[in-house]
Amino acid sequence: MKITAKQNARKWTKERLKRHPGFWEIEQNTRAVSCWPGEDAILMKNKSDGWSGWFPIKDIDISESVE
């Protein structure tokens, strides 16, 4: 999967994606969880460098792509 930051995404979300470019996958056995009032986040793992972290769902676009 490819993750891109939406235009109005938080600054730290954009910085995380710049530091960890490449393809991502949803961490096994995780689901969206409430992180702030009225917002959900999802745990994603970078397939290139192994880094994983939470991303607010409303800050990112997730697209399927050929890897």
Describe the structure.
- With 67 residues, the protein is mainly beta.
- Helices cover 13% and strands 42% of the residues.
- The chain is built from one helix and six strands; from the N terminus they run βαβββββ.
- The strands form two sheets. Strands 2, 3, 4 and 5 form a four-stranded antiparallel β-sheet that branches. A two-stranded antiparallel ribbon has the order 1-6.
- The mean pLDDT is 88.
Shape: globular
**Largest beta-sheet details:** 4 strands, antiparallel
Q: What structural class is derived from the secondary structure elements?
A: mainly beta
Low-pLDDT runs: none
Task: Record keyword descriptors for this entry.
67 residues, mainly beta, four-stranded antiparallel sheet, two-stranded antiparallel sheet, 1 helix, 6 strands, 13% helix, globular
Concise description?
It is built from 1 helix and 6 strands, in the order E-H-E-E-E-E-E.
Topology:
Elements: E1 2-5, H1 11-19, E2 24-26, E3 33-36, E4 39-46, E5 52-56, E6 60-63
Antiparallel strand pairs: 1-6, 2-4, 3-4, 4-5
